[in-house]
Amino acid sequence: MNSLNEIEVDITVELGAASLPIHHLLRMGRGAVIELDTTQGDPLRIFANKTLVAHGEVRVEHGQLGVAVTEKLLRTV
Question: What architecture is domain 2-72?
Fold first, then answer.
């Protein structure tokens, strides 16, 4: 089991997504807002090595921002 300690996993948490033309992106200034395809109550998507593995929600504890896993997504091989 000690060999598992050496394996690195890239974790990504996605709040939502948006599509917009590059010229709109280039014209955005500081403080610009990009509307995402999710609402405030929608779950976050949690990826491990670009594979969706769970859903979660934002948590703030002791002034620190974090993500709590609310649902693990099981994959059958």
Answer: Roll (2.30)
Q: Please state the pTM of the whole predicted model.
A: 0.75
Please state, in angstroms and rounded to a whole number, the distance separating the CA atoms of residues 52 and 73: 8
- Dist. CA 42–CA 33, nearest whole Å: 18
Q: Torsion angle of alpha carbons 37, 43, 44, 45, nearest 10°? A: -90
What is the distance between the alpha carbons of residues 49 and 72, in angstroms, rounded to a whole number? 15
Q: Across the chain, what does the average pLDDT equal?
A: 91
Q: Per-residue pLDDT tens for 26-42?
A: 999 999 999 999 988 89
